[in-house]
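Please go through the protein record below and see whether the fold suits the sequence. Record follows.
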Amino acid sequence: MKSSAAHEQFKTKITLAKILLEQAIDHNLSFEVVLFDGWYLAQEFVPLLS
């Protein structure tokens, strides 16, 4: 059986993408294009792209 600590550390690929994009924005990283596999497109991610 997995420990609860391992379960708490689990993040979906969408969540990880959101974290990475938010960190890039917070660090004023200049970018014009965000490229990713359309398979992972999710409504919770789209607002971050605006």
User: Anything to note?
Assistant: The CA atoms of residues 1 and 14 lie 25 Å apart. The chain has a mean pLDDT of 82. Residues 11-49 form one domain. The chain has one domain: 11-49.
